[in-house]
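Review the following:
>
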Amino acid sequence: MKSDKSRDYPLEFKQSDQGRCPSPSGMSIKSDKSRDYPLEFKLTPRGPSLSCESIISDKSRDYPLEFKHSDQRRCPSPSCESFKSDKSRDYPLEFKQSYQETAERFTVPQQNLVPIFKILEESIVAFIKNELKNFPKQQDHKETCLSQEEDADEKRSSSDAFLAIALQFLKRMKQGEVDSSLLNSSVVSQCAVKKQAHLPGNDELSLEHDIQARPERVHHKPLEDFITHQTNLKILEDDILHFAKNELQTFCKILSQDLSESSESQEVEMDPHEDENEKRIIKKAFLKITLDFMRNMKQEELANTLLNKSVITLCQHTLKSNLKTRFGYMFEGLNKAGNPTLLNRIYTELYITEGTPAQVNCKHEVKLIERAFFRPTKPELKIRREDIFKSSTERDKPIRTVMTEGVAGIGKTVLTKKFALDWAEGSIYQHIQFIFPLSFRELNMLMREKISLVELIHLFFPEIKEAGIHTFEEFRVLFIFDGLDECRLPLSLKTKEVLTDVTEPASLDVLLTNLIKGKLLPSAWIWITTRPAAAHQIPPEFVDLVTEVRGFNDPQKEEYFRKRFTEEEESRRIISHINSSRSIFIMCHIPVFCWITATVLEDAIKTNQERDLPKSLTEMYVYFLVVLSKVKNIKYDGRTDIDSFWTPETKDTIQSLGKLAFEQLMKGNLFFYESDLTECGIDVRAASVYSGVFTEIFQEERGLFHENVFCFVHLSIQEFLAALHVHLTFINTGVNLLAGEDSAPTTFEDFHQCAVDKAVQSPNGHLDLFLRFLLGLSLETNQTFLQGLITVEGSESSSSQNTIQYIKKKIGENVCIMKNNNLFHCLSELKDCSLVEEIQAILRPGKLPADKLPPAKWATLVNIILSSTEKLDEFYLNKYFESDNAATGLVTVIINSTKAVLSCCNLTDMSCSGLASALQSKCLLLKELDLSNNDLKDSGVKLLCEGLRSPHCTLETLSVSGCLITKEGCADLVSSLRLNPNHLKKLDVSYNHLEECGVKHFSAGQKDLKLALQTLRFEPSGSQFLKPGLRKYACELMLDPNSTHKNLMLSDNNRKVTVGGEQQPYPDHPERFDVLEQLLCTDGLTGRRYWEVEWRGKVHIAVTYRRIKRKGDNDDCSLGKNDESWSLLCSDDGHSGLHKNEVASISGAPSNRVGVYLDWPGGILSFFAVSSGKMTHLHTFHAKFTEPVYPAFRITEPTGSSLFFSHIL
């Protein structure tokens, strides 16, 4: 009862709970002077406790980790007290100023540290060498540590720290027996000292008992052998000295940097295979030695600073180590099956793009996937994972808050785990001191608690609490909040309740709200992931950057299936089958759906059912349920694969899950708790053990608070089971759950029409996929698979036909592209493609009869264009038809394009009202609109300006050149720019009759307003441009006799050319074609020009540069067969375009009168069929003309073929 001096180096264990219960359990009446530097072992099952308390002194107590603001109530201080002195208590880890104050006050220029560290290095090197020389003396334990002097005690403290280092280096040298011998020598020595000093205690008993239990460890032979070999000692000495010098260099860097910089260079290169805990022991022990020597050198403040910064470093190291353990591995599939795989090995880069905060929405996830295929290939900013918080020149402020959207199963959570893992492994963002990944799923458990931000961090990251860090203002911190869509907290970013103190308790919703808004810990970075449906919870003004995870692109899809099906022919068939089904192809954008598809197709191949591979979503999910039922029967119930799919247990499980799926879908819940399952009669434990179906399609996750959270593997599975439940209930009971459980029995036709109406009326489309499944389940092919669950009815065929007609009617009534798109998918699920086939039949011969198309067929054409595999970057209306009806019918395509070219499409003011409505759409993607050369007039421009002045209009380029506009139209355009001045950058109003007044309108507007307008074209201008159509650009042309082949005869004042019966007596000329029957006009053309040609026989109507070769018959001389000429081939068989010897076929009957329009500055050369004053577009070449072009012709048929210039009125 005198002292606990003999207490050895307390055993501190990895992940032990010492931070919560560190207090000693007993009392010494004299001293705890002998408490030694703590030995820390890996994964020892329990922590230590002191057995006695000193009434005299705690002199020997080693260096406890105590920090400013530590929570004494939760983490009590050690109970050993000294009633005499605490002189022997080692320097505690106490931050007496804030971290930043300490760093600023004691940061020392590196040049001033060099002499100090030179002396320090010399002293420590001498100390290490001396300690190694003393190893032989360990045999004589009677001579160790008997001095009662304080200097000797302090020296022993450093010696024990060195002993810890030596032990670890011996382990690295594979000298396990030497390591044990050296440890036992030290233990026996300390026991002897205690006995000589008459210091009994529980520690002594436990140490002796440990030695007696392992008598072989008391023998010192291995140590004697080791130290007698000087080579071994030399290797050990070199290794330790190398480590020490490197560590001292690191300490010097730490002291010469500020706090935010120091963490980037504090890691010391160590053996990559070394245990993290062993590394921590060595680093702490050497820090102890360094601090002792600094204090002996009277460098107290320097030691103080090094202590503060090093503790932060060690804490960060522990956090990184834990994150590597937590995120280093992941399961492929479900957590309960399979073996974990290294995340770095299986991670595939995801396609991440940058959006804007205004793009948050609540659309159905499958609709958003499909919309990705409708988007044009406009330049998108792809963001690498490691660049997500890096500022760019396009952003006017630094990034603090990032929101990453993505549909379920797309890879958002894995993305954040990979980011945290990369940080922990030191590959990215090393200027961040701490990353705290949190999930809303776990935060939901605290929704009724009041907690401070510091307490929240300590709760989820106890290593921060153990380090005693209670303030984060001086650190760069990143919070990752995963799964906003799972949040059940009443987040309200509009709240006026302000929280600024990280230590002040508050409700979790208030805490998170102020953290996101930047009121609380404004220096922190925030990263939130969410499904699109929940993104609106964070207003755009609080989000600096929105990113979107797109999942698999087309090559990645193929890569997935090639890895899953290793036989080349097999994978080729699978990929070909997936590409043949639009619905399946789109859904494979999601990695989880690829897994579902692979599961189904693998079973189909094994059971030789390749002829009946699923071709629709409903078939895929029905087959998927069958496959899982078969697995359950074989694996869990011991049945054969020829038994019935649907056992009574499986039926009950599927029906219960279907009820849960439907009820939660109608409530909008994607995640639910055990109480939700109980309400639907689901026994979680029994189902998870006995039902393979349950465990495959349902996920159960256990959080920090041990409360289970459930969800379906993917939203589509929830919707499929919900549809199955509704369908099954209607068949078995006649009850239409969509109309209410009290609804009267009805027919299948009314049942389906009710479902269609419900889905169409849904504001966010949450029933769209549900509707596809519900209608698909009515087909006989799917009911065959579901025998035993669904009673086969004989009236489905007629009901399906009635449903198909009802859907077509709805398609004609709808104006929403996405709702119509879903209805087309519904027709596909019902195996009806009649609308699409009708439109494709119309498209084959050429132009559409636009004036005769009903609304449903216009909607079908929109769907065909938008769902085409061709990228929709630039949309040309004249490819389909040139009329007001065409512009109105295809306006949905226009707003979903980046650039829409409606030039020369015979538009009038009738189409401008629909275009104005399109420009006001919130979904507008259009950036460039070309309406040039249409007879819009001032009345059309006035209507168009209704859209231009809308704040949703983000149009950047507008051309109304040659649209018969006068000064009145100019005034309307300027007025619209006043109301929406921030987007339009280029405006072309040339080739109109603006007059001086109209020009002044624009000039005044540019001077008075802060317009984004950078380019304004209003010349040329004049009354001659008020002629309708392209005739305003008409020009007079003359054929050039000097270029005319001698077989061609000119007439009508050189306006007509005919193939003659004999050669003409033209004089020789260097510009004359000598082999090919070709000729040019006299004048080269620039600007805008229009002319018309009438022809007979077989001719080429072309333009060319003057430098085209004239001698010979090779491609350099032939019109259209080189890069210097562009030609239209005309014959009784039809027309075709020719440039660079590439032929462009043109459908439709030939026209003997052809109009040619040249827009030289715009790089456009267009050909039109002219008949009875009407113009029909034939073909357009796009080129960047670099010199004047000359009209040119070639006549290839024998005598009688001719062409001449028409008179244009």
About this structure: The radius of gyration is 41 Å. The first helix runs from residue 99 to 106.
